[in-house]
């Protein structure tokens, strides 16, 4: 980097580039066509990949970008308040058993997101889907891991209202199979992780297999929570910028990327599960960089399966 370009000035320049695109959504005099919107989203994606979202330079960027990537438009305070007014849903006990543990070691999270906010959002989500059961193919209730998937939205969004509608859109459209009672999408993701690892690093795959280690055993939390279980939270949010921009299916490759970053230690360990029980602190930039290169190594049909596994219901 040249001496004339400091990290803060390049972050400011990146923030300016993002704002330029975001302001088109607000200030366009002509009605924007669907093509215009898609073109802007394409530009946002490219910027996320090249620069990352410079939250330190402009804290309003991430919530605005996430809402656009998720295509969240209808935010009705009345609807949300109506769900909240109904009080505890039928699985409130189950929710309370999980919420107090959510990102418990992250002080910044605990300061910004109280447990009652998580409980309220998850209760409201169950009520929302209680009302919509007749109109959709998949039903939703509260399942294990949902508390951790809700956490980044409550931390990032300026209000519980926005967090709720972003979370609901994300769960219902991006990864509905991850939150079915059987966790079908999670188990499919874990099987795909094994198949992808066998192709991109047969030696590492064989070493883990020789110790009877499959993804089901060592990668379940990382796949279930889309890596939100691996601190620090600021890195999780950067990783999620990438997943929301390009698809949650890529989380499987992000988990493989984390394995590759600790490959030497895993290969030389006689009991690798000790290392894999707790992944090293997340570093979003190298993980995303490796994940992007792994895409090229996968056969088209396997990559297509990977893309579809969080949402495509398999025919019986």
Automatic annotation (TrEMBL):
Gene Ontology MF term list: GTPase activator activity
Protein's recorded name = Rab-GAP TBC domain-containing protein
Q: Which Gene3D superfamilies match?
A: putative rabgap domain of human tbc1 domain family member 14 like domains, Ypt/Rab-GAP domain of gyp1p, domain 3
Domain of life here? Eukaryota
Tell me where in this chain the Rab-GAP TBC domain is found: 56-247
Q: Which GO terms describe its cellular component?
A: Bfa1-Bub2 complex
- Pfam family name, one: RabGAP-TBC
Which UniProt key words apply to this protein?
Answer: Cell cycle, Cytoplasm, Cytoskeleton
Q: Which family does it belong to?
A: Belongs to the BUB2 family.
Biological process annotations from GO: negative regulation of cell cycle process
Places the protein is found: Cytoplasm, Cytoskeleton
């Amino acid at each position: 980097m040249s001496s004339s370009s400091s990290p803060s000035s390049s972050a400011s320049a990146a923030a300016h580039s993002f704002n330029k695109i975001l302001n088109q959504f607000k200030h366009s005099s002509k009605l924007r066509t669907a093509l215009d919107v898609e073109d802007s989203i394409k530009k946002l994606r490219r910027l996320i990949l090249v620069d990352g979202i410079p939250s330190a330079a402009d804290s309003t960027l991430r919530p605005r970008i996430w809402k656009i990537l998720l295509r969240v438009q209808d935010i009705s305070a009345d609807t949300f308040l109506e769900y909240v007014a109904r009080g505890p849903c039928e699985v409130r006990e189950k929710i309370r058993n999980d919420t107090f543990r959510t990102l418990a070691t992250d002080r910044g999270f605990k300061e910004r997101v109280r447990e009652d906010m998580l409980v309220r959002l998850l209760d409201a989500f169950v009520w929302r889907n209680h009302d919509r059961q007749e109109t959709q193919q998949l039903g939703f209730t509260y399942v294990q891991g949902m508390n951790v998937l809700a956490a980044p939205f409550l931390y990032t969004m300026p209000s519980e209202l926005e967090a709720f509608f972003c979370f609901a859109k994300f769960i219902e459209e991006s990864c509905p199979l991850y939150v079915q009672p059987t966790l079908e999408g999670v188990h499919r993701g874990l099987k795909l992780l094994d198949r992808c690892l066998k192709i991109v690093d047969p030696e590492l795959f064989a070493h883990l297999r020789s110790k009877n280690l499959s993804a089901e055993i060592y990668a379940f939390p990382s796949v279930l929570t889309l890596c939100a279980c691996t601190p620090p939270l600021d890195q999780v949010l950067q990783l999620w910028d990438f997943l929301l921009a390009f698809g949650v299916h890529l989380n499987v490759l992000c988990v493989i990327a984390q394995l590759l970053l600790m490959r030497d230690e895993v290969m030389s360990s006689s009991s690798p599960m000790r290392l894999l029980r707790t992944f090293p602190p997340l570093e979003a930039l190298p993980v995303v960089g490796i994940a992007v290169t792994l895409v090229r190594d996968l056969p088209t049909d396997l990559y297509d399966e990977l893309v579809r596994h969080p949402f495509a219901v398999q025919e019986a």
